[in-house]
Amino acid sequence: MASNRTLWRRMRQSARIFVFAQRLIDHPTTSAEAAEGIRSRLARRPDIFLETLERTVYAHADSPYRPLLDAAGYDLSRVRSLVGKEGVESALRRLCSDGVYVSIQEFKGIQEARRGDRVFRFNERNFTNPIAGSGSGLSVSSGGTSGRPIATEISLSNFQLGAAHLATALAAYGLEGKPAIMWLTITHGASLWGVLSLAAVRNPVAAWFSPFPVSLLGGDRLPASYLSLRLWGRLRGSSLPGVTHVPFGQESRILAWMGSSMANGCAILTTPSCALRLALAAARKHARLTGITFVTIGEPLTPAKLATIQSTGARAFSSLGFTEFGRATYGCASPVTPDEMHVCRDALAVVQRKRVVDHAGTEVDALMFTSLLPNARRILLNMETGDYGRMTTRSCGCPLEVLGWTDHLQDIRSFEKLNAEGRLFFGSQLISLVEQTLPQRFGGDPTDYQLVEQEDEEGLTRLSVHVHPRLAGIDENAVRDCIEVVLSEAAPAAAVLWRKADTVRVRRAPPIVTRTGKLMPLLRLDLPDQSSHQDLVTVGSV
Ligand SMILES: [Zn+2]
């Protein structure tokens, strides 16, 4: 019975994707129309924000933001007057400092929200957009904290907005109308999005490579309607690619496929890790990637990764996105740091809030996101995503700034998640792995184990599990197996990808202590307080 129900659900889902994509392909957007839309939304930005707030928050008594606004004494007219006097960002900063924000733990329901003597409890479903309608959109899933995926529905107009932003970025990089390649797993939230968006802006999608084979029954399954969609797209003058399996380590097959035909310009949408793999494969073959532009998603574009990519003659621009909003930023076309990006401010406002992120007292400027448009995927009002970074203002002169995306973000990192190969894993689950699961199974205590996220000598992000050498008789393969079981239960897609990419490694080394003298169960070597290797000491002697 259960399998019949699953089959029926998949068929219904597949049919919905078909109808959705048909409507998308039938109403293509040009980059000129996209730019016009951005300008017109920016011209009315404060009014649009206030209208959205009225319709999605103040008109709904059960909105999670209502108690936060009430507790801080903000009725709509007070917010309206604040926005009128000080502008959107300044008003949002004021709201944030008065307690109108949602931390990542509060959003996920891991922690209750305490504001003064009031206590609230939320979960992810509370933040559904009450006016977006449901049933006709495209449903995408993100990993929930319990390992159960949470569905977010994307309306057609929200999808078209995201496609228009992508077209705008490609035009800024000189890639309008140039072939685009997707190199992402099918299960990655951005892969089908990218393929359909490129089709919706009539940018030819030349190929889709996936590190995993297409599965008929497993996780890497295309919607059953995808084949008919490809035929439909072709009839309507739009191209949707088939999926070609290229396992990690065989990137030279992509190079061979591209040959010299992409030298006149080609966009590759992928993760920084996969872009790096292609660059390393090119370097091994003494090949150049001139004409290739990577638009990277899913993880930070770090200096080490970008340097190797650029050494082959390719370019790379970063982009930050999350399931609850979509693509939030696109890389500056004249960047001064590897991941300098412009906020898509016609649809989004970003402010910062100082917060402590670990037991060592490390403080970061967390990014707080507010969705401005009524078709937003989720209602975000000073919502934390678990990322921090630097907001800057400078005149870069690139087309994205000229268009009005004047807010710059850079050095974006996550303080709450491990991030490798474009897949995330939440810190709180890893901490219980280090502090409970591993000591219980293999002996020792929580100070004998540590998870360290760090780039290796080639620039690939690795997750090293430090096991103190003083623990005798430990089978390192058993430790690795145990970690993989925990990962598979909590984040199946990340676990499969990390296994194939050999991301998790066990090291017999003492855990590392930060310069403030703390031993963190989860250590990311690029957090501000932990950035310098010279400042780190190891515990005990080997
Ligand atoms: Zn710029």
Condensed summary:
The chain is built from 17 helices and 26 strands. The chain is of the alpha/beta class and 542 residues long.
Looking at this protein, list some descriptive labels.
542 residues; alpha/beta; Rossmann fold; GMP Synthetase, Chain A, domain 3; six-stranded parallel sheet; disordered C terminus; binds zinc ion
Structure characterization notes:
The protein is an alpha/beta fold and 542 residues long. Among the domains are: 181 residues, NAD(P)-binding Rossmann-like Domain (Rossmann fold, 3-Layer(aba) Sandwich), CATH 3.40.50; 116 residues, GMP Synthetase, Chain A, domain 3, CATH 3.30.300. Helices cover 36% and strands 22% of the residues. The protein contains 17 helices and 26 strands. The strands form 8 sheets. The protein has a 6-stranded parallel beta sheet, with helices on both faces. Strands 13-14-18-17-16-15 form a 6-stranded antiparallel beta sheet. The site of zinc ion (ZN) has 8 residues, from helix 14.
Secondary-structure map:
Blueprint: H1 2-26, H2 31-43, H3 45-58, H4 65-71, H5 76-86, H6 88-97, H7 104-107, E1 113-115, E2 118-120, E3 138-142, E4 150-154, H8 156-172, E5 180-183, H9 189-200, E6 205-210, H10 226-235, E7 243-245, H11 252-258, E8 266-270, H12 272-284, E9 292-296, H13 303-311, E10 315-318, E11 321-322, E12 326-327, E13 329-331, E14 341-343, E15 348-356, E16 363-371, E17 383-392, H14 399-403, E18 408-414, E19 417-420, E20 423-426, H15 427-442, E21 449-455, E22 461-467, H16 476-490, H17 492-500, E23 504-507, E24 512-513, E25 522-524, E26 537-538
Helix pairs in contact: 1-9, 1-10, 2-8, 3-5, 5-6, 8-9, 12-13, 15-16, 16-17
